[in-house]
Write a structure and sequence with these properties.
The chain is an alpha+beta fold. It has two domains: about 80 residues; about 50 residues. About 40% of the residues lie in helices and about 30% in strands. Strands 1-2-3-4-5-6 form a six-stranded antiparallel sheet. The radius of gyration is 20 Å and the shape is elongated.
């Protein structure tokens, strides 16, 4: 009998947006430690890079509005991503009360998924955490 599959649908969340704002703030604050220069070409280059950073992070923030991901996972550690790509979980998942992170292998490509707790309801988040831990335990002890 095959392992039961569980479906998870993720969409962008407040915590995901907040983490993007924090990363953007770190990048923008790095401009304050650039060396001082009076050269017009240096100031132009610095301003151009700053504008490109603002444009990039604004575009990323806008794209989060439409971001979603759906995957199906079994306790054995295999599943399907967006109903198309089969995957297998690799490595040890990192699980915290705020977010979880795990690696999946789709064919020859390895991807990292970061799931913030507010992307799912509490029951689904706990269920996903249990499935990831079961998958990790079954890979450590295949006889179980």
């Amino acid at each position: 009998m095959g392992a039961q599959q569980h479906s998870f649908h993720l969409s962008s969340s407040f915590d995901q947006r907040l983490s993007l704002v924090v990363v953007a703030s770190l990048c923008f604050s790095s401009f304050m430690i650039w060396p001082y220069g009076e050269s017009l070409s240096y100031l132009f280059c610095k301003a151009l890079i700053f504008i490109l950073c603002i444009s990039y992070f604004s575009w990323q923030f806008w794209q989060l509005k439409y971001w979603s991901c759906q995957f199906i996972l079994s306790a054995k550690g295999n599943g399907r991503l967006n109903q198309k790509h089969g995957f297998v979980i690799r490595g040890k998942p990192i699980i915290t009360p705020f977010a979880l992170m795990f690696d999946i292998q789709c064919g020859t490509e390895v991807k990292r998924l970061l799931v913030w707790a507010d992307m799912l309801d509490d029951t689904s988040y706990r269920h996903l955490c249990r499935l990831l831990l079961q998958s990790y335990q079954s890979r450590l002890n295949p006889s179980l």
